Amino acid sequence: MTELTLIPSSGATLPAAPFHARHLIGGAWRDSADGKVSERHSPAHGVLVSVAARGGQAEVEAGVAAAREAFDAGDWPRCSGKDRATILLKVADLIERNLDRIALLETLESGKPITQAQGEIAGAADLWRYAAALARTMHGDSHNSLGPDMLGLVLKEPIGVAGIICPWNFPFLIVSQKLPFALAAGCTAVVKPSELTPSTTVILGELLQEAGLPAGVVNIVLGYGDPVGATLSTHPCVDMVSFTGSTAVGKRIVAAASGTLKKVSLELGGKNPQVIFPDADLDQAADAITFGVYFNAGECCNSGSRIIVHQDVAQALVDKIVALSRKVPFGDPLDPRTQVGAIISPEHMAKIHGYVKDAQASGAGVALGGAALAPEGLSGLFYQPTIVTGVTSSMPIATEEVFGPVLSVLTFREADEAIALANGASYGLSAGVWSRDISTCLDFARRVHAGTVWTNTWMDGFAELPFGGVKQSGQGRELGRYGLEEFLEAKTVQMRIGATRRPWVAA
Ligand code: NAD
Fold first, then answer.
1. Residue 30 above 80 pLDDT?
2. Ligand 1 binding pocket, CB closer than 6 Å
3. Within a domain: 502
4. Average pLDDT in the 442-467 region?
5. Which CATH number do you get for residue 112?
6. What domain range includes position 104?
7. Which of 130, 254, 287, 334 could form a disulfide with 12 if both were Cys (CB 3.0 to 4.6 A apart)?
8. 246, 343, 486: residue to mutate for ligand 1 pocket, most atoms within 8 A of CB
9. Which residues are catalytic?
10. Does residue 322 share a domain with residue 227?
11. What is 82-117 written as a DSSP string?
12. Are 259 and 326 in a shared domain?
């Protein structure tokens, strides 16, 4: 039997010159005042793919000032939902028109497979369209039952300048889970992509200009978490920070934001359990688990990185997952057959491997993988599909985010034990249950601590449905109308009608 399915170098021609990414501030493209840049090499091919301006204090100040001016004095917060929607729809069309160009850069910088990147860019265009619909349909409330002389109104107003800080694992998709919703609400923004994957956000900036978005409404400041993200988090002229990234950095942002009490919404890490009951369709479960753990090389907040399977079916299920894992094509992200690409950085590879070694040292078994991979003709960073069995709740691999193609297998006997294991991590992003009994599924859905629960499926997503975490997986929600609400403030207006107010001071 083939050990694993590897896709060698496709020999695809890589771009002759790196992409040059610059800041977008007040409608103008700029290098950093001090001329600093950072370089990004493709994690799959090792070649230089982008050179990005590396922002400092000066660029953050300029970006925030432009966004502030556009919010306080510009048309965007005051124009009609219809006008905002018109621009958002144009952006969606432009994203689709530029899909291949965006997807190629996304793949080169992140290491994800090209077909997956294409799917994500198409999904992002859909989010811009969905946000356009929200821009036209958002409304507040009226209260007509406060007495004959009163009318109460709840106005929904944009919160102001949003600082939008994004990670490297889904660069274009995640900025599209935030920015169109902020714009639909009437906010202006300063966007900071990850220093590892800046280029597709820069292309988005070009498309925003082409769509006719007024200068200063969206500013892009490139660079590292400190100083760019850190300054956005403390800046008195930024009204809100919308962050996706690690729980550790999320905590730092909350602490930094406390000085100005700005709103912070957080989409953080996860250690997402799937509980498999003995009556489950094991073939369906095995396929979904295989997808859930290897999708995006496991570098996914929603990674189905641990399963909690009933002892009676554990061996049968693991055998199926091992067999499927051998068939998943790992290798050159530029080959359309590839389903799992490269790991983002050498430091991250070491972290993934460290979790596997630590579990082994604590008595866990490795049913598959557990080492680096070297697809033919590629010099980049690849890790084998890895299945760690005999994991117990005290091992770090059971409760911490590995963020790699590594599945932890735990077992249970009673439903209560499975729930306790599922809720035993500090995270609460998503969870899944596999059973043919709807009562079992519903009971799990009600008792598990998670922002999203999948029953007999894994990692489906819809623009209409809110997404976010509980516990240390975050606060606030993206997508759906909840995603718009994050960028809105409620203002209460109490209107007295007629001269019926009883005087407080006796005449
Ligand atoms: P990260 O926290 O290291 O970085 C995220 C962003 O924050 C980057 O742009 C980085 O430059 C910036 N940053 C770093 N230090 C900062 C600081 N002190 N102040 C402000 N900004 C700072 O995360 P990452 O490694 O890019 O992404 C992986 C993490 O993101 C994982 O934990 C993953 O689970 C999480 N994630 C969550 C979701 C979700 O929706 N819940 C989605 C994707 C990724």
1. yes
2. 165-170, 174, 192, 194-195, 224-226, 229-230, 233, 244-246, 249, 252-253, 267-270, 301, 401, 403, 429, 469, 474
3. no
4. 98
5. 3.40.605.10
6. 12-268+473-491
7. 334
8. 246
9. 267, 301
10. no
11. HHHHHHHHHHHHHHHHTHHHHHHHHHHHH---HHHH
12. no
